[in-house]
Amino acid sequence: MELFNENSKLASVILKDHSLLPVINRLGIKLGFGDKTICNICMEKGIDLNFFVETINVFHYEAYFPEKRLLDFSVSMVIEYLIKTHQYYKDFLIPENDRLIELFLSASPDQNTENELVRKFYAKFKEEFVIHINFEEREMFPYILELNRVIENPMSGELFKQKYPEYSISGFEKEHSAMDDKMDDLKNIIIKYLPPNYDQNRGNAFLANLFLFEKDLKNHSRIEDHILIPKVKQLELVLQSHE
Amino acid sequence: MNNSPNKSIVLISQSDMLLFGLSEILKSSLAGEIIQLHRGDEIIDYPELSGHFLVIANAEELEKSKLLIRHVLPAEGSVQFLPLNIEPIPSPASTSLNIYDSHALICYKVNEILNSFVVPQNKEADTELTRREIEVLRLLTKGYSNKEIADQLFVSTHTVITHRKNISEKTGIKSASGLTMYAILKKIIDVSDINAEDLI
Question: Do B175 and A192 touch (CB under 8 A)?
Fold first, then answer.
């Protein structure tokens, strides 16, 4: 296994693992970069080189997760990345899933209850998912960013403590596992149990998109649970020690 | 071949070179998942482990982490430890690995141990739900809690939880709404029996 590094040509990185396409988009890069290396491109676009390299490696190699090094990145950088990921889910992956599931379920001429149930199950999963990311964006991330600001500028500490008397991330943490379970269930139901009264190609297209979603989501949760949350806990301890 | 219960390998080494190299080699072994750790205590970051485990690390690390690992890994599976020698002395004994062992020898030694894990044959091959499990599933789809199901069936809540765990293992489905869908697709219940709006 060879890790990507700053001298890797971005084109060869993408040719090796096309699932990184949305990841580089999120990090601020569009296609058409010729033979430029990661280093060139990051300099041009003002992207943090280390963050870029570590993020694509973490995404590409399931076994690679250099926790210590990842903990060095700033909270705001990590959150910016996470928000862009949410954006990608909301603007693209979910609508794409919606479109593909509709295609595949409506392909069977006779409306059957089974397909109707899958549709319902998917709708429920989606609803929970959207609630989850909205909660993170509206409640959890603002809390973390404010906490970070207070650490950098202790003057504003009083106001912060009025707003968040407990100032503990544990109150915000929501289980990722419930959503992962539902996604797994949806895959299992279609693969193992749903009567195949539908166009197989369309079914495959939906599943392929679901697998893509799953991979992306797994990495997303990995960064939140192992990088963001531990960092926030560190910051909370720092604030405590100032008291 | 059935892959449950899983047989996984836990590799512990400070060296990424060793971790990645050995994982690469062990991909051709019988192991299901290969978990890579820099330190033994990182095992606590893996909350939902199940099945059997072979832990490979140097002798010192094994000494240090053995207790914790035994504690964290699930009680129903077995755990074996295989020391890894990094000295250039060949160790043909299957009781330890040596970093100079060949690809084939490493896989052979590891597979020997993985094969020795007892697999309860009939239970494993069986993915059909038992009558009792079907009863539990039926009550579950009606929205009853574990406690209520236990009361109805005159068993303990603990037994109900065990049934639910087995149901999920056999079907591959974990959420309550997923199980409801399963029950309908398998004609265990009829859609008209339940309130589909609430349950799915």
Answer: no
